[in-house]
Amino acid sequence: MRKDIFEVRNKQTRTVIGLMSGTSADGIDAVLTKITGSGLDIKVEEQDFLFLPFSKEVQERIILVANGAYGGAKELCELANYLGKQYAYACEKLCEKAGIPKEEVDLVGNHGQTVWHMPEQAQYLHDMVRGTLQIGEDSYIAQALGCPVVGDFRVRDMAAGGLGAPLVPYVEYLLYRKENQTIALQNIGGIGNVTLLPKNCTLDEVTAFDTGPGNMLIDAYVSRMTKEEKAYDEGGKLAAQGKIHQGLLDFLMKDPYLQLPPPKNSGREYYGKAYLEKICEFAAEHHVEDVDCLRTITRFTAESIAYGLQHFTKESPDQLIVGGGGSHNPVILADLAECLPYCQILTNEDIGFCSDSKEAVAFAVLASEAISGNCNNVPSVTGAAVPVIMGKITQ
Question: Exposed site from 100, 107, 305, 366, fewest CB < 10 Å?
């Protein structure tokens, strides 16, 4: 029996799957949640989590398309439908892992795979346009599970004048705010992004923006220096063998993106292949060893986070809670502690949450809020003119 949006909307407690595949294009995060209530009264309980890795071939194809110079309409169509089937499969495997029939799922929130994001206006034909493109056909998920799917969140915020990112701060406000502490939440995925929740804040007092590269440059350099034998620096072991090259770090800290005031966001379009080539050219010219270059790039991730907090937030956080893949890199965590000595550095695991599932949980919540009819963007963060309900519904 198929569920419609009205049936789901009328339920006080919903079983919701959240799906996320990020700029690293390494696979799909799928989380099973129980969500009770909505808005400030919402309660979220994580039931189970699954990571479905992409093969190297799939990851490389996604990155090629996301670099903007590969593929056309045929390629986008094929990739969008392929990913839709993969998202549906991830949902089914998650239900199997959790030991529940897929018919129990009320709703799915799917971020999709970003293949292009252009927050700045550009001339196109006879108009100025901005845009974002997340692909992965939601219809395959709806067909497989028999429930509504909410996806393609970002474009609604852009239509209201926003940047379409970051979106997670709305959920972080609902779940992490405190009356007597200022909390910063730093996600380190392919890109780094931070949310600042001042003590006892209202939604319009939330600050959030992309801090710069997260793991993207680290992963790309590891792949290069190991001749593709390794895709990432597991546990920071390779970076730990090197030393910070101050000249290279100074060069990286001159990155114009760091000086831009919020609202701002970035992605592979900026910190992709061309950016890495600039780093490699500097390293070759100044005879920087591979391990030292990697160590410096790793430090750059931490320094860019500290720079953003020091220059674009009104108050210093009492705690910085780190999530995403970078939270598993002890070198990054130690660098953050050095760069931000005035605040406590924690991971989501330290406070009883899961770093790997955090963004997938966010899209489960954003979907549930959309079904509830609640605006789920943060205009003070994205730059949108008004609050809007983000997400397109497939049923």
Answer: 100
